[in-house]
Prior knowledge:
Elements: H1 2-21, H2 27-50
Helix pairs in contact: 1-2
Amino acid sequence: MRAILWLLLTASVLANVFISTFAGWSAGLQIAGSVSTGAVLLGSAAGLWLTRPRSGA
Length: 57
């Protein structure tokens, strides 16, 4: 589970860099792409935080 979340986190960061730098999309498509990759990033980060190993102390 955590491996999939790490994969999603990495893929969303790379996709966001691609969309904002190399894609050449219009403003509306660029905003939509950034919002969707940002949502995936936040969701995977929250999933990783919720599934983190807890210390016994």
